[in-house]
Structures are given as structure tokens and as C-alpha cells.
Amino acid sequence: MPNMTINPSILPKPSGYAHGILAGSTVYLGGQTALDADMQIVPGGIVAQFKQAFGNVLTTLAEAGGRPEDLVSVTIYLTDVDDYMANGREIGRLWREMAGSEYPAMAGIGVSRLWQKEALIEIQGVAVIQ
Q1: What does the DSSP 8-state code read for residue 15?
Q2: Interatomic CA distance for residues 130 and 125, integer angstroms
Q3: What is the residue-wise DSSP string for 20-89?
Q4: How far apart are the C-alpha atoms of 101 and 123, rounded to whole Å?
Q5: Is 17 in contact with 30 (CB distance < 8 Å)?
Q6: pLDDT in tens for each of the 130 residues of the chain?
Q7: What is the value of pTM for the model shown?
């Protein structure tokens, strides 16, 4: 079965990348920043940006036929690790609200900057659809 490109119509139209690729039962979820449908980074700091970016990831996963519990790996790129850690309780609450209480293998990586200058976070993942 050939790989299938996953580009949900409710997310910004990608140019030069795909939001996701379904290869067999594995979904490779491209990095998502906190872009809204108008191609603007949502205001409100790291918590608001986490919610939008993770929501974008989950939208792509759902379009591929997956659910949050299918996530096996998530990588979070951060421009300010200390800010993320300071807001960890709220971010954890959002995770549980959006994806449940199970967590995949995860990594958090501090970076100097992301593609959009206003972006504080980028999230990518891998899921295996059951």
C-alpha cells in the first residue's frame, strides 16, 4: 500500500511539507506550531500555544483515522524550556483534557528559534493506529 499524505482542510494549507504521512498503520505527524486557520500564531503565551499546536497534531492524527491513545512518540521543541516547565501543571491538564491520561514516549528539546518568530513551541509525533 503506498504512503498517503494527510493534510486536513481545517489546518493551514501546507507548502513544501505535509501535515502527516500514513505509512501502513504508522502515522508520521509533521511538526506543528500554534498556527491558527488564518496562518497566525495564537497569542497568550506557552499554554495557549501548546493547546493550538497539540490540537493541530491531533487534528492530523484524526484525519488519518487515529486517536490520541495511538500516539507512541512525541517530540516538543521549545524556545524557552523554563517557561514550559513553569507552566507544566497547566500544560499537563491540557494534555489530559485533549489526549487522556496515557503518555507516549516523549522528548522536550530547547531550541534557539522556530520557523515563525512568534512561535514558542513545535510538536511532532508518531502514532500507530490500532
Answers
A1: S
A2: 16
A3: EEEETTEEEEEEE-SB-TTS-BPSSHHHHHHHHHHHHHHHHHHHTT--GGGEEEEEEEES-HHHHHHTHH
A4: 18
A5: yes
A6: 789 999 999 998 888 999 999 999 999 999 999 999 888 999 999 999 999 999 999 999 999 999 999 999 999 999 999 999 999 999 999 999 999 999 999 999 999 999 999 999 999 999 999 8
A7: 0.95
